[in-house]
Amino acid sequence: MLNNSTNERGKGRSLIKAFLLTLPMLFIMALMITGGSGLPKDPLHLLPMIIAYIFINGTFFLMILTMKTDKYRSLLFVTYALCFVITFISNLIEVRGSMVLTHEDMSQGHTPFCHMVIPMVIVPAALTRTIIFPGSMLEGFAAIGSMLVLWLGASITLGKGWCSWACFYGGLDEGFSRIAKRPIVKNINKKWTYLPFAILLVIVLTSAATLAPTYCAWLCPFKAVTEFEEISSSKILLQTIIFFSLFVGLVIVLPILTKRRIQCGLFCPMGAFQSFTNKFNIFEVRIDPEKCVQCNLCVKTCPTFSIDEESVKKGKPKITCTKCGKCVDACPKEAASFHIKGTPLGVNYEKARLIFIYPAFLFLAIMGSGMITGAIYRVLLLVTTESMFK
Amino acid sequence: MVRFKTFLYYSWALMGVPIVLATFMGMNFWAKKLVAITGLEVSPRFTGGQVINTVKHDEYKTLIHRPVFNGLIRERRNGFVQIKWKPNEALLPRLIDEEIDFDTDGRSDFRIRLDTQTNEAELQAFNDEVVSPGEVLVLGNERIIRIALKRNSN
Amino acid sequence: MKGFLLGLANGTFCFAYCAPILVPYLLSEGKNVQRNFITISYFLSGRLIGYLAFAIVAWITNLIVIQNLTSRTTILGVVYIALAVLLMFYGFGTKEPHCVAKSTKALKKRLGIRHKYLLPVILGVLTGLNLCPPFLLAFTTAVEKDSLRQCLLFFLTFFIGTSVYLIPLPTIGLLRRYDILRPVGRLAAGVMGVYYIYFGFITFQGSIH
Known about the structure:
The complex is a heterotrimer of chains A (390), B (154) and C (209).
Chain A: H1 8-11, H2 15-34, H3 43-66, H4 70-96, E1 100-101, H5 103-107, H6 118-128, E2 130-131, H7 144-158, H8 162-165, H9 170-177, H10 195-210, H11 214-218, E3 228-229, H12 234-258, H13 262-266, H14 269-275, E4 283-287, H15 297-301, H16 309-314, H17 326-330, E5 336-340, H18 349-385
Parallel strand pairs in A: 1-3
Antiparallel strand pairs in A: 4-5
Chain B: H1 2-14, H2 16-25, H3 27-38, E1 41-42, H4 44-47, E2 51-56, E3 60-65, E4 78-87, E5 95-100, E6 110-115, E7 120-125, E8 130-139, E9 142-150
Antiparallel strand pairs in B: 2-3, 3-4, 4-9, 5-6, 6-7, 8-9
Chain C: H1 2-17, H2 19-26, H3 33-64, H4 72-92, H5 104-111, H6 118-128, H7 133-142, H8 148-163, H9 172-175, H10 178-208
């Protein structure tokens, strides 16, 4: 099942073997998608669940069968992000009537906590034992405690793989980066790859100084597809213009022009923060120097600028590697591969890939199943009742 | 030794699936544990702080929160005090006019006149620390206001 | 606290531009970590002297110039914006500002071997008086302070903030990180410039209203 001979990836795996390897995922997803409480009777809830189940497990099956990672990961990842937007916005409109976050909502702790806030809350939390975010610790949707647990679990298992297997925003950036056939803008100055770390430093310091999450207030482009503060002053109007412009520029336009994940690779401070988790995560991508012919295809392919000529020579991408598998699939000599730290290089690389993609895909599937089910439900509601809202 | 180390690394890698399952299935449990162990809570700059005094009136209750001057290492000079009005029955009276003592020294610190229909507030300060009223927040039939405070010395 | 955090944020600029020139001279005594710590301590002491001297200048500026200005907030707002643009220009652009550290070689030659121990102290004083954009921004913030004590405290905390990046330098391991820390420092300074533009605008806007 776990072949390692050269070009074995190109041939893929037999159907039976692939099915047997997919079986555990089928059982786990059946449990997770139903929440352990059986199938719903209402067809409006049952049908989305079935579609999501087939789609998710079908994607995984193909990933196992073809021994290719990125194409199928990306399919689910982008779908998850789109469905997240549909589900999140629909829920907001249903509960609040609009995407606008009012001061009343904030005063009641109704703001869902998103992982982007984590770097900003650490210093104040360490010094004051308070979270500088208008959310709820344990109650409601996306409570602070729950999101912290999710993030911890993902960091331990995936490291910066969070950015390609868990983040509900990354799929938007990724989706737009896959639209064009060829990049129009090819040369990007290497210095911009340090911008996420610079932004991280500034937002950590300014958040500690002001005791408010400055990235959320000023820079987060994803407010354009989630929720944003009611425009009640010129300052908030300026903030709105900024985040909307950043969304259009960094998430839509530049990824289309460059075929790279610009927001993720050149801006996101959470991504920069998450890079440090790669230091202790057991999984990594490695480049076998004995097989590598230095064609630099991986350098051109990497969506987050995590590989350059220097890292090819060193045999491993930079700490910003999101373990998406694009370089692994693209490498014509199978020199790039997933690897378990501390184990011999160039041996059992398919085993290492399987051991990595199981928890990674599981994380993505569980996070995504709720959103995909929710989005399909909304679409069905629209088709049957002419409204996406109950 | 090398084989044993390799075995250990593979074992740790294989823990990926159980950790993911434990994360999702036990999310509420782990979240409660995390909060209990760390003692983390939402900053009073967002929650308004604890209620330290409740003044009962015929038609409503006035909840006076602890003044918030929380800073990163020590208290800041600028802060606020949150006042909340809750009706006893259905609605708050049209006009609320009362004096508030937020530092529990027995003396009123400011007088506030709140029109619950237009949601406009007027403030008369009796204490040097009281600066200005903030925006009136409407939560159903309740009203919340934050009064900006400034300490004269640290 | 504000001074300290501003120092931390702006200190990346100092680190990015001055440290690569200073470090080879400061640590040219050898790889002895203890010796390097002593050298850095001399350097930081000199820098502190420079900063506190400037705190006094800021206070005098407040007394003589700022307090007598009718449109002080307008002028301060404009100054913030101008300095912020400069910070962004150096942070995001390719040009480098003048740093006194560039005269280290000449200074070392002048001092000779007899007085070479003075080199880190003098370099510290000179960098403490160096008029680079983050320092000018800190100066602009300090001139608004109400007392000499506050000016001195602000510059002291600013000094501590900027020095945080220099303290671990004596450990050789960090020297290898320059190729990463330098661009991060420059870009962070540029991002801080964006923040200061906003800060300048609200100061300016406040003066109009």
